[in-house]
Write a structure and sequence with these properties.
Blueprint lengths: L1 H5 L10 E5 L10 E5 L5 E6 L5 E2 L1 E3 L5 E7 L3 E2 L8 H6 L9 E2 L3 E3 L3 E5 L15 H28 L3 H18 L8 E4 L11 E5 L5 E6 L5 E2 L1 E2 L3 E8 L9 E8 L3 E2 L2 E3 L1
Parallel strand pairs: 1-10, 11-19
Antiparallel strand pairs: 1-4, 2-3, 2-6, 5-9, 6-8, 7-10, 11-14, 12-13, 12-16, 15-18, 16-17
Helix pairs in contact: 3-4
Length: 266
């Protein structure tokens, strides 16, 4: 990890958020998470899965939203300052307030304070300074620049295959850091006759026995966001209600990532 940070490498952002206990840092299952407009109007609602994960696709027409979370015996927003180690586990911690969003998946991590357990500010070595966390992130950026300088200097002074390979690796890392190869965190539904995206279609996920385990509705761009456990499933996508007669497409999907990102032609 340290060597990766030295090269400026960071973990790819996950396409989902996690609701977790601010004391134990463990994920909280079955929490109702809501997206609210600036005026406080509820726009979307979902329930976190058994691993505390949730996800929303945010419309590009929205600029600022806020989140709310509800579950028995817990309070939101959390009043506990996140520790440095906590920030490594949950890199996008949200403790209330407006957030600026762009079109795509919302992946904010939501801590919640337990009502019946004393919150200890000394948990996790007592490191709770957000400023220190920011300083460490800045230090990683500085180390990357230093690594580039020393790598180039070493390649000039000692132009061996190893030194040149290190410089090439550094610049490749920089390219990936700036541009990235982002995994698409959502699936897409399209009309098989016109190849256009299908908004507001129903998508259901079933286990091998045919039991429904999850469902969602595609957004105005035909995109859908669906979290799932690793395994093999049947995905059924239905055309929206304005298409008559209604059509359905069933495909087999296998996921190792924890979410479905298949394109479906209906």
């Amino acid at each position: 990890v340290i060597f990766a940070q030295f090269l400026g490498m960071r973990k790819k952002p996950k396409p989902w958020g996690t609701v977790y206990d601010s004391v134990t840092k463990r994920p909280l299952p079955f929490v109702r998470v809501e997206v609210l407009s600036e005026e406080g109007r509820k726009l979307q609602s979902t329930i976190s899965d058994v691993d505390g994960r949730y996800g929303f696709l945010v419309s590009g027409q929205l600029k600022n939203v806020q989140l709310n979370a509800h579950v028995a015996k817990y309070d939101f927003p959390s009043q506990e300052a996140p520790s440095v180690i906590e920030g490594k586990i949950y890199p996008n911690i949200y403790q209330g307030g407006m957030v600026n969003v762009s079109s795509g998946a919302m992946n904010l991590d939501i801590p919640m304070d337990p009502r019946e357990q004393k919150v200890s500010s000394t948990l996790y070595l007592g490191i709770t300074s957000a400023r220190l966390n920011n300083l460490l992130a800045s230090a990683a950026d500085v180390l990357f620049v230093v690594g580039v300088i020393f790598g180039l200097a070493n390649a000039i002074v000692n132009p061996s295959t190893t030194s040149i390979s290190v410089v090439a690796l550094i610049f490749l890392t920089y390219f990936l850091r700036v541009t990235g190869f982002k995994l698409k965190p959502f699936g897409l539904t399209k009309d098989i006759e016109t190849a256009r995206t299908l908004p507001f279609g129903l998508i259901t996920l079933h286990n091998q026995g045919g039991e429904r385990v999850n469902f969602t509705v595609s957004d105005e761009h035909g995109r859908y966001f669906m979290l799932t456990e690793k395994g093999n499933y049947l995905l059924r996508a239905y055309t929206p209600s304005h298409i008559v007669p209604n059509r359905m497409k069933e495909i087999s999907v296998s996921t190792k990532k924890g979410w479905i990102s298949r394109e479906v032609l209906i």
